[in-house]
Structure formats: structure tokens, C-alpha cells
Design a protein that fits this description.
Organism: Actinoplanes subglobosus
Domain RNA polymerase sigma-70 region: 26-91
Protein name: RNA polymerase sigma factor
Pfam family, one: Sigma70_r2
Helix content: 25-40%
Strand content: 25-35%
Number of strands: 37
Keywords: Sigma factor, Transcription, Transcription regulation
Length: 758
């Protein structure tokens, strides 16, 4: 069960009556919101978790007293505000009584410094770290305002909800926010000045007697110096607007130990009362507020069964062959259409086949696969040591046909197969050097097993810690599309063209979509190639053919709650952006991605291109849209959630749908995705148990042809159409783990090739 603005009122009403699933949804959905607010309010205090827990206790206990269910979110934030105020009051009382004897009250635990945690979780650019540090200079009342405004900037609260949480009118809240922003800008300038390699002598003199602890008195003294000093004050001119920095900073994930603590509390009976559950999953009152919390926390960790999965047609069992080291021939006329055959390839060294993306959620690492005009093929994969890309030659039966070509490189992000070799998009050490020690992007051509040429794709002003890219070839020109980072730490993307000899070709761009979390690319007869970006700045998906940034005039393909990574890597994330854009012979396209949809979408009055978006689902469903050509969508996108511009192949809140791919399949297309039984979602990312990989045949207009089918195999690389109308792809034959984040990748020494008969 998930919560959106459309259904939140009904969920609150159900929760007030004791519905287990409704209470579970409320607690699950709002725990990250409360945790981030309390953390930024308390700053260095060590009792953030206690206040969060107390807030949820009171919210569940007092839910029946909420007269207007539609105002649940600001009501909850008001409870959190009062709990923080009460904690401040109790701490000040304790300090006044014990300060001479208990100096530990003045020493914060570094591990609970929320500003430090925020700085670590944000992008590594200096200005984002400095903004987190600047919050320590704010007055307490401004810290409260910042905590709420930060949530507004991240798209978690509206301005009206912020005002109601503060118990103010919208106009008065706006004034309070403006005053806070002015103080924050002063604080940011102070942090920059104090961190300067060569500190101004007058500033050093002004700091005489300072104990290195941020405070209002020293903020005013330092600010006075900055106003009068051209050297120190000039630092403010280079600062990026705060709202841009905050909006691109994700909500800090709720710590695992806090969730574990809540779980233990609910399971050990430490509440001192017995809890019973009545019929239909409704709660039976047990007589105390503490017991109410125990029940609420119990349902938070003990979810009910979800809805039944979508109807599927099982793959033909007679045609599916178990992975075998012996190559299986390509499909022939005697094999039924839709039948799947497999071939297993042995690898000389381990392959770490999972990768943590933008959100830390593991997904299939990119294994580019390409077929040459003569029917032979190549498969690229990154060795587990992260130092070399192995490119494996395959025969027409997709069995190994020789030894790997080992290419020094740190990522396999695009592959083109030629009759005499291949071209690979990868990254290596940056010969120009750069601020962050990142690698540089390279396009490398191999011919007859030897390097023919290598072309550097980045320059002295950009680098790339991950390509997240793709490579296309139209017979005469390569198009390489990948993520880049500038010297300030900001992320964008670059599309560049190279000739068959590796020389630069006009077109493309040096800087594109902000914080791009997805790239799709397809070759045209001549540049510009068709391209789509997932712009992570209050936007969504854009058809950005021929332009770097989606202004002006680019067709918007999807409204997405993209700020701070909420798009959750719609095309697969780090090392996984591929097989999402299919071109038909008449110039039409289909694009597929994982989407949370939207229940509200409107232009942001504070931004000339951004949108304010409220997600429809907490989980992701499979979305498809059609393009008339490389420049225009078939149906214009509107803000109406029921728009005809997007077709959802799945429509459920019970299952997450990830690893979405699409490939050309004869005259049609074939979309595939992994289905995950949801156990919980946070900040646009869900955890759960993998329940299978599904496929759906689509017409060129994106309409389903028949029902989805459970494949019995997975997808870990490019979906490549074959000359006879069949479809081929690689995968690792081990069930993926979508239950947690941050794990080290497992390794394998086999990759399985799949052919689905056309």
C-alpha cells in the first residue's frame, strides 16, 4: 500500500479506524520525512532517533483526534516540531543543573552530527558540503525554518504544508523563510571564508578569542568583517543559489539501526501490555498509548500480503534449455516463435555482476552486447578487479569463438560490433588531471585483436566518475553519450560524435541535463542521433535530440519527482543505461522506463523550467511512450495524470518494477522488467523479494499484443535484434537480490546468452 495526495485522506481515515495496512502505510511513508526534519532541527544532538520514535508514537496515539484527515502531513510535522522543542527544553534544563559537573553534555557524538551526515550523503562538491556546515551557524528558530524549507525544496512538502506545520499563514511563513535564507547566505559566506587556503590577515585578527564553535555572536562579528572586506566578501559571488543545492540533496535515509530498534521494541513485548488483532486486520485497543505505538510499529515491520501479480502466460517449457557449457544453436525454422534457447559462456576471471546505483540499490551491471553485420558478436564485461574490460568474441551461435580481448578500462558502457573487431566506450585515468581524481571518457577501436585508435572524449574542464552512458553507430559515425562532472562538482551529460577513424565530428554538446540519472540513445542516418535524458532537477524525461539541455522546445516525455534522485534511475542507473529506446524502420520510436507516475504536476513558479510533481506511486510501474520521430512525441504530454501520452504496462502498488528494457522484435517491440514483491519504499527506491522477469510484446504504437509472460530467464545486457526477427541478450543466471542496499556484489564466472525466436 502506498500514499499519494489522491488517496492519503482515505488512508488516514482507514488508519483511524485501526486498519493495519493503512497504519503500516502511514508509518512507512512518513518516517523518512520525520527523520530528516528532526535531524536537521537537532543538528548535533545525539537523541534524534528518540525524538523520531516519540513523534511516531504520539502521531499514532492521537490520530483519532485529527479532525481533517487531508491535513495529516502538516499535523504530523507540527507534532515533530513540538517534540523537538520539548527536547531542547529538557536538555537546557539538564545543562543548567549539571553543566559544572557533566562536561559531556557539551560534547556531541560525531556519529550523530546530522550536518556531517548530510555532507557525506550529498554530492561531493565543496558548495554542498559548505551548505551543510553553514546550518550550524543558524539561530534555533531559523534552523527549524530551514528544516521545513529543505523538505519543500526536495519536493517532500508544499509551501502550504510548511506554513501549516509552522502554524503560520503562507505569507507569514514566506517572510520567515526569507529571513532564514538571508542568514543562511551569510553563514555560507562565513564557511567559505574560514576554509580559504590563505586566510585574510584582518579576518584572523577578528577571530582572536574564538573557540571554533559556531554561534550567533561570532556570526555577527565575522559577517561584519565580510561586509567590509573585498577579499573575503567576494567569495559570496561564486555561490550557487541555495535552493538549487538543497533541491539536489536527497532525503537522508533512515538508519538501519533505528529501524532495527523499532523492530526489537515491537517484538520483545517491552511495552508492558498485550496487543491483539481483530478480524480483517483491525487493531483491538489495549488501553495505553505505548501499546498503540507497539501495534503501529508491529505493522510497520510485519506487512500483509500484497495484491496478486498481473496475469502472465508462462514461457513454453519445451523450448527452454537449462544453462549448459555447450553452445546451443541459434533458433531455426523448427523452433516455435517466442521459444527461448540459451548458451552459457565461461569467463576466465570473475565478473562482479551487480552494482549499486545512485540510490545504493543493486541492479545488473552493464554487460554490453552487440552483433556484427556478418552475424558474429561481442560481449563486454568489467572484471571484478575493476581495472580491465574483457570483450569476449562470440560466433554466430553465440558460443565463445576465441580468447577475450582485454582492454584497460574501468567501465563497459557501450559496444559496437564490426566484422573486424569492435568499438568500446569506457573510462580510464584522466591525462588532464581533475579536481576530484575522476577518470576520463574514451572511445576505443579494436581491429583484428589490436587497438587501432583511442579517442579522449572529456577535456580539462570535465571528468567522469561513472559513464552511465551508451554508444551508437550509423555506419559512418559513432555517437557517445555519457555523464560528466565539472570542476564545481555538478553533474551533467555530454554527447559527442567521432568518425570511423576516431576524429571529432561536428554536433553534440559539451554540457547537458542536470544530474542526469538516465540516458537513452539511438542512431539516425546522420547526426543528431535521437536521445533522451532523465533530468534530475524538478523535471522528468526529455526528448533532447540535438540539444544539450531541455530548454527551449524539447518535448517532455514524463513528469517525475526527480529532485534528489527520486527518479531512482529510470533507465538503470550507474553502469546500466541501455536498451530503452527502439527505432522502427519508418522512423518511429518506443521508449520504456520505470516510473512512479504523478498525481500532481504543475510548473514551478520559482523556476522557469522546473515542475512541482507529486508521485502517484511509491513503487515503480512499467511505462512506455511513442515518438513520431527523433524530435517529437506522438502524443503531447499534459499535466493530467490520465494522459494518453504514457501507457503503463503494469499498474499496481504491490510490486516494484525495475530493470526495464525494450528491444526491437521483428516488426514489433519487446519490453522486459524484473518484478519485486515490495516490503518497503523510501526516497523513490523500494526493497523486496524478486519474483521473476516478465516480458510483453508491443506494437509500434506501444499497445500490448497479447498478455505479459514470465520468461524464466533474466536480462543483464543489451536487447539486440537479429536478422531473422529474433531477439538476443545476455544475463547472469542467478536470482537478483532486491531486499537490501549497500551489499558487495556477488561474482560469477559464467554469462548466459539468450535468444528468443522471432
Amino acid at each position: 500500500m502506498t500514499i499519494t495526495d489522491q488517496i492519503q485522506t482515505d488512508v488516514v481515515v482507514a488508519a483511524r479506524s485501526g486498519d493495519r495496512k493503512a497504519i503500516n502505510a502511514l508509518v512507512t511513508d512518513h518516517l523518512p520525512l520525520v527523520y530528516n526534519f528532526v535531524g536537521r532541527m537537532l543538528g548535533r544532538h545525539a537523541d534524534v532517533d528518540d525524538v523520531v520514535q516519540e513523534t511516531m508514537l504520539r502521531a499514532v496515539r492521537d490520530l483519532p483526534a485529527l479532525r481533517e484527515p487531508s491535513r495529516f502531513r502538516p499535523w504530523l510535522m507540527a507534532i515533530a516540531r513540538h517534540q523537538v522543542t520539548e527536547r531542547h527544553r529538557s536538555r537546557h534544563t539538564a545543562m543548567s543543573r549539571t553543566a559544572p559537573f557533566d562536561e559531556e553534555l557539551h560534547e556531541p557524538d560525531p556519529g550523530t552530527d546530522f550536518a556531517a551526515v548530510t555532507a557525506l550523503r550529498l554530492d561531493v562538491s565543496a558548495q554542498r558540503r559548505q551548505t551543510a556546515e553553514a546550518t550550524l551557524w543558524l539561530d534555533d528558530d531559523h534552523r527549524e525554518t530551514l528544516a521545513l524549507w529543505w523538505l519543500e525544496a526536495a519536493g517532500a512538502l508544499t509551501r502550504a504544508e510548511v506554513a501549516e506545520s509552522m502554524e503560520l499563514s503562507v505569507a507569514h511563513a514566506g517572510v520567515r523563510i526569507q529571513r532564514m535564507r538571508e542568514q543562511l547566505e551569510v553563514a555560507r559566506t562565513i564557511v567559505v571564508a574560514l576554509a580559504a587556503p590563505a586566510r585574510c590577515p584582518d579576518l584572523t585578527e577578528a577571530l582572536a578569542g574564538w573557540d571554533d564553535v559556531p554561534g550567533a555572536l561570532w556570526r555577527k562579528r565575522i559577517a561584519r568583517h565580510l561586509r567590509e572586506c573585498d577579499v573575503c566578501g567576494g567569495a559570496a559571488k561564486a555561490l550557487i543559489p541555495t535552493e538549487r543545492l538543497l533541491a539536489s540533496a536527497a532525503l537522508i535515509a533512515v538508519p538501519i539501526d533505528l529501524k532495527s530498534r523499532i523492530t526489537a521494541l515491537s517484538k520483545t513485548g517491552a511495552m508492558g501490555k498485550t496487543v491483539t488483532v481483530g478480524k480483517a486486520g483491525k487493531l483491538v485497543a489495549a488501553g495505553s498509548a505505548v501499546v498503540t505505538l507497539a501495534v503501529a510499529l508491529l505493522v510497520f515491520v510485519d506487512r500483509d500480503p500484497q495484491e496478486t501479480p498481473p496475469a502472465v502466460v508462462a514461457a513454453p517449457t519445451s523450448a527452454a534449455a537449462a544453462p549448459s557449457p555447450t553452445p546451443t544453436p541459434s533458433p531455426s525454422a523448427t523452433v516455435a516463435k517466442g521459444a527461448i534457447t540459451t548458451t552459457t559462456i565461461s569467463l576466465p576471471v570473475p565478473f562482479a555482476y551487480r552494482i549499486g546505483g545512485y540510490s545504493g540499490k543493486q541492479h545488473s551491471r552493464r554487460t554490453p552486447f552487440a552483433v556484427a553485420p556478418n552475424g558474429t558478436a561481442w560481449l563486454a564485461w568489467l572484471a571484478a578487479d575493476g581495472k580491465n574490460v574483457h570483450v569476449t568474441p562470440l560466433g554466430k551461435d553465440f558460443g565463445r569463438s576465441g580468447d577475450d580481448v582485454v582492454v584497460p578500462g574501468r567501465e563497459a558502457s557501450g559496444l559496437i560490433a564490426h566484422d573486424d573487431g569492435f568499438a568500446l566506450l569506457t573510462r580510464r585515468a584522466d591525462p588532464n588531471g581533475n579536481t576530484f581524481g575522476d577518470s576520463a571518457a574514451y572511445l576505443i577501436r579494436y581491429r583484428e585483436g589490436k587497438q587501432a585508435w583511442s579517442s579522449l572524449l572529456t577535456d580539462a574542464s570535465t571528468s567522469t566518475p561513472m559513464l552511465v552512458g551508451d554508444l551508437a553507430w550509423n555506419g559512418t559515425v559513432y555517437g557517445a553519450y555519457f555523464a560528466v562532472r565539472d570542476e564545481s562538482g555538478h553533474f551533467g551529460d555530454r554527447l559527442t560524435y567521432r568518425s570511423a577513424a576516431g576524429q571529432s565530428v561536428a554536433g553534440g554538446w559539451t554540457w547537458g541535463c542536470s544530474h542526469n540519472t538516465g540516458i537513452a540513445l539511438a542512431a539516425e542516418k546522420r547526426p543528431p542521433f535521437a536521445s533522451v535524458c532523465a533530468n534530475d532537477w524538478k523535471d522528468g524525461l526529455f526528448l533532447n535530440t540535438g540539444i544539450g539541455f531541455p530548454r527551449p522546445g524539447a518535448d517532455r516525455l514524463d513528469h517525475a519527482e526527480c529532485v534528489a534522485g527520486y527518479c531512482a534511475e529510470p533507465f538503470g542507473g550507474d553502469g546500466g543505461s541501455y536498451s530503452n529506446l527502439v527505432r522502427f524502420s519508418d522512423g518511429r520510436y518506443l521508449l520504456a522506463w520505470q516510473s512512479r507516475g504523478w498525481s500532481k504536476a504543475s510548473p514551478d513558479p520559482a523556476d522557469d523550467y522546473g515542475y512541482l510533481v507529486t508521485a502517484r506511486w511509491k513503487n515503480h510501474n512499467v511505462a512506455v511512450t511513442a515518438l513520431d520521430d527523433k524530435d517529437s512525441a506522438a502524443v503531447t504530454l499534459t499535466t493530467d495524470p490520465s494522459t494518453r501520452a504514457i501507457r503503463y504496462l503494469t499498474n499496481t502498488s504491490a510490486y516494484d518494477h525495475v530493470n526495464v528494457r525494450i528491444g526491437r522484435y521483428g516488426k514489433n517491440a519487446f519490453a522486459v522488467w524484473d518484478q519485486v514483491d515490495v516490503t518497503g519504499c523510501s526516497a523513490g527506491v523500494c526493497d523486496g523479494r524478486y519474483t521473476g522477469t516478465y516480458g510483453q510484446v508491443l506494437t509500434a504504437a506501444g499497445a500490448p499484443a497479447g498478455k505479459a509472460r514470465k520468461l524464466g530467464v533474466q536480462v543483464g545486457g543489451d536487447l539486440v535484434p537479429l536478422a531473422d526477427g529474433s531477439l538476443a541478450w545476455p544475463f547472469v543466471d542467478k536470482a537478483p537480490d532486491y531486499r537490501s542496499r549497500g551489499k558487495a556484489s556477488p561474482t560469477t564466472k559464467t554469462i548466459t546468452m539468450v535468444v528468443m525466436k522471432g
